[in-house]
Each structure stands twice: as C-alpha cells, then as structure tokens.
Specification:
Blueprint: H1 5-27, H2 38-41, H3 46-64, H4 71-100, H5 104-114, H6 120-126, H7 129-155
C-alpha cells in the first residue's frame, strides 16, 4: 500500500477536480439557463483530465521510480488511479447531484422534452441520480484506463 500512495493522492486530486469542474459548470449557468450548451462545454473536461493523468504519471515516475518508467508501470499506475476515482465516483456523483447542482436533472429533463430530444418518460429514466451513479461508476474507470493507455506511451522513460 505504501508504494501506491502516489496513485491514491492523484485519484483524490482527480476527484476534487471533478467536483470543482461541476461547480464551475453550475456557476456559469450550464446546468440552468445555458443548458443548451452543456453537452458541448462538458466535453472540455477532457483537457484538464488528461493533464491530471500526465502530471500523475510524471509524479509517479519521479517520486517512486527514480526517474524511470516502463509503459507497463505507467499503465498499472494509471489503472490504480482510475480505480481510486471509481471508488469515489458514487459519492462524487451524489454530491454533484444533491449539493452542487440539485436542479440539473429537472432542467435537463425539461430541455430534452421541450426540444423533442427525448420523451418525458425516457428523459426521466435517463436523467436521475441512480442512472448517473451507474453511468459514471462504469465510465470513470473505462475513460481513465483509455487515457492511461495513451498517456503512459508519452511518459515512459528508460
């Protein structure tokens, strides 16, 4: 466990970042009056998310691996970070949905129904806390592992 402190630290950093990003989206109106742009704006989270993984693996290489890292070491480290993030994901999603942006689901349901993107029943089935917890708990490790597989190629060093 001691040799995995770096991964735990970066998993927590990533989790805090997610909460801050969602707070920013909410404060800028993308969960309310500007919800139409939400689907576009929320994708920009990929840029700092990738940067966090780069910084995490560079930190792991420097701090724990004497400046050297194989692809496999980077991949394993990133997978562990992704699993830490996944462990926190249900709590993170709960906080986002109940504390940071409690009106998001009703706003997005209203938007999708008014714009005939979904029926009301389909929107209510998709946009709710349980659905988002499931989606994010599955999606977080998948996206983390994909990101890690790419980032590890660039941070490996013999």
């Amino acid at each position: 466990m001691k040799n995995r402190i770096t991964e735990i630290k970066w998993g927590i950093i990533f989790t805090v970042f997610m909460l801050l990003w969602m707070t920013m989206e909410k404060l800028l109106g993308f969960h309310g009056e500007r919800i139409k742009q939400h689907m576009i704006i929320t994708n920009f989270i990929a840029i700092p998310a990738i940067l966090i993984y780069v910084l995490a693996l560079l930190d792991k290489r420097k701090r724990d691996l004497n400046g050297k890292m194989t692809y496999v070491q980077g991949l394993i480290s990133g997978i562990i970070i992704s699993l830490v993030v996944a462990l926190f994901t249900p709590l993170t999603q709960y906080l986002i949905s109940t504390v940071i942006s409690p009106d998001y689901f009703s706003n997005i349901i209203e938007y999708t129904v008014e714009n005939e993107i979904m029926t009301e029943a389909a929107a209510k089935e998709y946009f709710n806390l349980k659905s988002y917890i499931i989606q994010s708990t599955i999606g977080a490790p998948i996206m983390g592992i994909i990101t890690t597989a790419i980032v590890a190629l660039f941070v490996r060093k013999k």
